[in-house]
Every structure is written in C-alpha cells, then in structure tokens.
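Please fill in the sequence for the structure shown.

STRUCTURE ENCODING:
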C-alpha cells in the first residue's frame, strides 16, 4: 500500500484582537468602540506658535535684483542670452518680497565651504 501524501495544516488560532480595537472595548458578541470624554487637562488650549520668516533664516542665501546695466554687463561677460540663464519662478518664496518682473535677473549669493562665496544668477519667469 502507498502512504497517503496529504499535508495536514495546523489550524489558525482564533484572533484575540481585531484591527483598531482594544481588548477592553471588545465584549463578547459586540464590537462597539468605547467612547470617552476628554479630561479637563486635555481641554486646555495649546499656545499659539509664532510663524518665523523664512527669509531671515541662516540657510537662505541673499537674493538681489540686478539693474538693467548690470544685466547687460553679465550677459556680455559670459557671452549669454537672457534665457540661457537658469530660471526662477515669480512666486518663489525667496523673491516674492522683491517685486520682480518677468525677465529680470536675480543674483543669489551663497556661502560655500570650498569657495567661500558662490554667486548664481537666475532669470525670473512666470509659470
């Protein structure tokens, strides 16, 4: 006779917990959530947090708008056209306060660990 090749699996144990439920809220035959009223300590209002100005932060580089004469000198020195420069949006938080126009050039001065100061130029575009 040939032995049967049935594989017997262990039966799964019954779940003690249901997802999202705790043991004290599960009663036999019911699945209602236990509701509690907030204590008086949790009713206290959290203090309002002051919003900081992101442009005053140490990691935000200095942004300034170049005049038309400075823009012409920059483009002539590097033999570029205006739209060969990297772009920056008018609604960028770093330049919103500068009230720039589309086509103006922004000079960004960053601190660099290797070069000391690094200067970048970007042209303002509208989406």
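FILLED IN BY: designer on duty
SEQUENCE:
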């Amino acid at each position: 006779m040939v032995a049967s090749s049935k594989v017997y699996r262990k039966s799964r144990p019954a779940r003690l917990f249901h997802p999202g439920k705790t043991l004290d809220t599960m009663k036999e035959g019911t699945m209602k959530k236990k509701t509690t009223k907030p204590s008086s300590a949790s009713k206290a209002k959290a203090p309002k947090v002051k919003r900081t100005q992101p442009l005053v932060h140490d990691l935000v580089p200095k942004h300034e708008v170049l005049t038309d004469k400075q823009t012409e000198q920059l483009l002539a020195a590097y033999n570029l056209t205006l739209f060969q420069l990297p772009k920056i949006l008018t609604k960028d938080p770093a330049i919103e306060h500068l009230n720039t126009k589309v086509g103006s050039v922004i000079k960004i001065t960053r601190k660099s660990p290797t070069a000391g100061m690094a200067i970048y130029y970007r042209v303002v575009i509208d989406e």
